Amino acid sequence: MNAPATTAVESDVAVECVAVQKSFDGTPVLKSIDLSVPHGQVMCVIGPSGSGKSTFLRCINHLERIDGGLLRVAGEMVGYREHKGRLHELRHHEIARRRADIGMVFQSFNLFPHLTVLENIIEAPMAVRKNQRDDAVADARRLLDKVGLTGREDAYPRMLSGGQQQRVAIARALAMRPKLMLFDEPTSALDPELVGEVLSVMKELAAEGMTMIVVTHELGFAREVADTVVFMDGGYIVEQGAPAEMFANPQTERCRDFLGKVL
Amino acid sequence: MTTPIPTTDQPKPDLATLQVAPTRHYGRWFGTAVLLVLVAMLVHTLFTNPRFQWTVVAEYFTTPTIIEGLFNTLWLTAAAMAIGIVLGTVLAIMRLSPNPVLSGSAATFVWFFRGTPLLVQLIFWFNLSALYPKLSLGIPFGPEFISGSANEFITVYVAALLGLGLNEGAYMAEIVRAGINSVHSGQREAAEALGMSSRRILTRIILPQAMRVIIPPTGNQLIGMLKTTSLVSVIALPDLLYSAQMIYSSNFQTIPLLIVASIWYLIVTTILSIGQYFVERRFSKSDNKPAFTLARLKKTVTNGQREATA
């Protein structure tokens, strides 16, 4: 493998994957993923369940470790460093430092239930970024306003609807001022009438130029917001292109099949 | 096509007059009657059987020996529980470690200390000098810095703390482990994704949530420990029970003094139970369930009245 550089290089590519592989107990989930996401772009990942979409997303911030290939975010490998031609897994605090720049939003929100909305948002900026509490709180209020939840600072997550919880989760991720946002089926656990409020926050974020990778079943969102749509199946990227083109004229049998079932 | 359905709050008039008759629970009535008779018999005998010797109970209730014994019991309970909780937390974290040596040693510790009777452990620690007459601190297999006679170091207090604390550590380890396991893995992932450090994740995210599962059984353990400390009477540590025993071995008022000890145990247990209620409430504040307060009780009552009058 001819990995170009060991140090971080400023590049216009936010995420770069070369032949990324991942298996669970010998079962390959990602067989060989090649992909690159330029800064400021929105990429939607679609595909049938079990196709490896979520696993791929979780590899990007090293919630899953990859078994082979190269995965870089902003020119830096997330979980490893190269030393004399070998990859060494980083220590937890080094991984944590890199993760801090990558926001992640989960299907099941994963808000901290024992903390209030405000505490959920200011926790990481204070603990990781060492921000002053006043600054963190001011920032949190600004973000709550952005996601339309002004006034709910002192609520506990259980008192909120799913859509509100997910918007808090987005605010929590944004509070770290990430350079990249990962969304793992952010609306799949929501009642249909709550999906829209989360999607509109995400649309606004996309319009501001945030680099986003979104695993989703919301093809309408993909069509409207995504710069690129990636169709995954069986651990491979089967097809990739602009949403309008792909939805209108899928090139592969499998993609046509999938779109026929969900559109 | 959809059809609008007219909604109305008015029930149909002929059905509105129907009344609900409650079910009659004959079994419960019978059970209640039997219990009332038994309670009456108990109260009667408490007051009429002179052998309870309530005057002797009152006389010894606050005698200095008993109060000293009570204090020994209290600090022994607190110290043994503190050792148990700290040790249990460490053991639980070791047990969940991916390193097999760490998790294996924690499992073995729990296996051993849960698997042998506490009474045996207490006597064993008390007689440690028979196994190791000399104790020393130094580099393993190397030079010693401090050494001394085991008999001098292992006093009854040290033996009691070792016995109670290590044994409690084994039980607490299982409680803490269950608590940590009860926290959904998504919580750790969310914290990791935010770039938080392992220590911060454990202390700020995992343990506070584990507390809700850890605290109720820990309250149980604490109350259990209060009474388990009475086992130290076998190594002649003057706790509450042993103090009572010392008194009745000289004046032969066995029953009244056992009653004195029992009443003290009950008083402390009651206080601890009340404390447990408040601690549990503190750690479940994120639940939707509002806490029990006087203001809330008042609100419930007035709401009930309003409904009744409506």
Provide key terms for this protein.
A: alpha/beta; globular; B: 310 residues; mainly alpha; MetI-like fold; two-stranded antiparallel sheet
Short description:
Chain A: Pfam families: ABC_tran. The termini of chain A are far apart. Chain A is built from 9 helices and 12 strands.
Describe this structure in words.
Chain A has 263 residues and is of the alpha/beta class. Chain A is built from 9 helices and 12 strands. Residues 1-9 of chain A have low confidence and may be disordered. Chain B has a single domain, classed as Orthogonal Bundle (MetI-like fold). The radius of gyration of chain B is 28 Å and the shape is flat. Chain B starts with 12 loop residues before the first helix and ends with a helix. The A-B interface holds A 61, 63, 92-93, 96-104, 106, 108, 110-115, 123-124, 127-128, 156-159, 169, 172-173, 176 and B 184, 186-187, 189-198, 200, 204-205, 208-209, 285-288. Chain A: Its EC number is 7.4.2.1. Chain A: This is ABC-type polar-amino-acid transporter. Chain A: GO terms for molecular function: ATP binding; ATP hydrolysis activity; ATPase-coupled polar amino acid-transporter activity. Chain A: It holds the Pfam family ABC_tran.
Fill in the CATH topology of chain B.
MetI-like fold
Question: What is the class of chain B in the CATH system?
Answer: Mainly Alpha
Shape of chain A: globular
Q: What is the chain-wise order of helices and strands of chain A?
A: EEEHEEEEHEHHHEHEHEEHH
- The span between the termini of chain B is 40 Å
The percent of residues in helical segments of chain B reads over 70%
User: What is the terminal-to-terminal distance of chain A?
Assistant: 40 Å
Strands of chain B, count: 2
Q: Treating each run of at least 4 consecutive H or I residues as one helix, how many helices of chain A?
A: 9
Gyration radius over CA of chain B: 28 Å
How confident overall, as mean pLDDT of chain A? 90
Keywords (chain B): Amino-acid transport, Cell membrane, Membrane, Transmembrane, Transmembrane helix, Transport
Main location (chain B): membrane
Transmembrane segments (chain B): 29-47, 74-94, 106-126, 146-167, 230-248, 254-279
InterPro entries (chain B): AA_ABC_transptr_permease_3TM, ArtM/GltK/GlnP/TcyL/YhdX-like, MetI-like, MetI-like_sf
